Amino acid sequence: IIHYMYYAISAYGWPMYLITHSKTGICDLCPNLKCCNFCFGRSDNAKVIEDNCCLCNYAALKQMMADGDVEIIYVTYHVDIGETPFFVAVDYAREKIVVSIRGTLSMKDVLTDLNAEGEVLPLNPPREEFLGHKGMVQAAVYIKNKLQEENLIEKALSHNATQGTQDYGLVLVGHSLGAGTAAILAILLKQEYANLQCFSYSPPGGLLSMPAVEYSKDFITSVV
């Protein structure tokens, strides 16, 4: 639980890094910044979507993940109502592919939080008794579609065959809005990835209907 908590925190980018490293944060981030495409630069092959011109969020993500044997594969900071930032990483120490989903940070995230009607989870075959928080169902469907369109989990699994990444398990994590989205996404992906695990840090109350809660107890751990 503690290990994967760092993934959930890291998804918040530079604001969280500066809060938790108030004295040294700016100096720590400088070596990884790419200021307007001509200062410093990146030395890895991660795909970074919609970060700012200096890649401040990605620099903070790398710094927060620096203590572990972790490689970032893909990160997007695109945000809209029902569309939440997330990243995909390979955790060599735990032999897992990790998808980490950001929590509430922008006004668009707040609007996603407030869209709290019950919505049937889009499962096949349908389970009408499986209801979830509508805004977070939308966010989970958005991330599922991105994972499939970009083939991200399969790319991570095939990323380093010499270290056996093709046999790694799948872990979903998130905090707050990200926690609720990760939990719903775990239910949506369970049929495809039977051994997946989800660590959900401070998920909102009223996230799932009771049948969905009972179904998910074996693979979702919620930390409140």
Key features?
224 residues; alpha/beta; seven-stranded mixed beta sheet; two-stranded antiparallel sheet; 9 strands; 36% helix
Poorly predicted residue ranges: 36-41
Instruction: Assign the structural class, choosing from mainly alpha, mainly beta, alpha/beta, alpha+beta, or little secondary structure.
Output: alpha/beta
If helices are DSSP runs of H or I spanning 4 or more residues, what is the number of helices? 9
% residues in beta strands: 15-25%
Count the beta strands.
Answer: 9
Largest sheet: 7 strands, mixed
Overall mean confidence score, pLDDT: 90
C-alpha geometry: globular
Radius of gyration: 17 Å
Order of strands in the sheet with most strands: 1-2-3-4-7-8-9
- Reading the helices and strands in chain order gives HHHEHEEEHEEHHEHEHE
Helix content: 25-40%
The end-to-end span amounts to 12 Å
Description:
It is built from nine helices and nine strands. The protein is α/β, with parallel strands linked by helices and 224 residues long. The longest helix has 16 residues, at 134-149. The relative contact order is 0.15.
